[in-house]
Amino acid sequence: xxxxxxxxxxxALAVGLLSAASVAFAGPQCTxxxxxxxxxxxxxxxxLKAEGYEIKVFKVTDGNCYEIYGWDKDRRKVEIYFxxxxxxxxxxxxx
Length: 95
What we know:
The model is unreliable at 19-24 (pLDDT under 50). The N and C termini lie far apart (51 Å). Strand 1 (54-60) and strand 2 form a beta hairpin. This protein has a single domain (28-94), classed as Nuclear Transport Factor 2, Chain: A, CATH 3.10.450. It has 2 helices and 4 strands; from the N terminus they run H-H-E-E-E-E. The chain has helices at 2-24, 41-50, and strands spanning 54-60, 66-71, 77-82, 89-94.
């Protein structure tokens, strides 16, 4: 009986740790605005390119952000989450 409880306890612990890890790696929540209020994706990307960004990947996240992976005007590798309504950066990671 102890082996069953022990296995069950370990399984519950593993599930809990995995759940906490997925929350820790989740991106930010950028907006709750209706998509009709968002900036056009293509126009937004063109604006970033005009500012000197080179976009490798552009996507819409589960947190309602425009996210880019690429390089800034100084050729630094970046990952940036933008509010698709205001266009402001919400979270920036630079390597």
